[in-house]
Amino acid sequence: MSRKFTVIDEGFACAVCGTNVNPSGYTSRDHCSACLCSVHLDDNPGDRESGCGGVMRPLGLELNKKGRQIVYRCERCGVIKKNIAASDDNENLIIALSTRQM
Ligand SMILES: [Zn+2]
Ligand SMILES: [Zn+2]
Question: What are the residue boundaries of the structural domains of the chain, listed by start?
């Protein structure tokens, strides 16, 4: 049995908590919906050019025109990045981040 998947929105197993994250169905899934962690793969969104591979941990939450953006710092190289929070992200962690001082 082999099936071909050509969609870019793909599920993955989280490198931090091991949760199998399902594709979001509407946007590129770029972080774990359970622990909100991400992996530093991109220099620019979606390019997979970074080669760093460090774990991106959420630092805080920013509210702006794009909605809720989670602010990340890479544990390995220290770069700061932002990802838009998904609708099925762990709401308790989102709330905890929104009250954290950056
Ligand atoms: Zn996770
Ligand atoms: Zn990095």
Answer: 12-98
- The band of 8, judged by pLDDT with boundaries at 50, 70 and 90, is low
How far is the centre of ligand 2, averaged over its atoms, from the C-alpha of 58 (Å)? 13
Instruction: Round to whole Å and give the CA distance between 83 and 27.
Output: 11
What does the alpha-carbon distance between residue 73 and residue 29 come to, in Å, rounded to a whole number? Answer: 18
Report how far apart, in Å, the C-alpha atoms of 90 and of each of 8, 33, 83 are: 23, 6, 14
Give residue 96's pLDDT: 95
- Ligand 1 centroid to Cα of residue 62, in Å, is 20
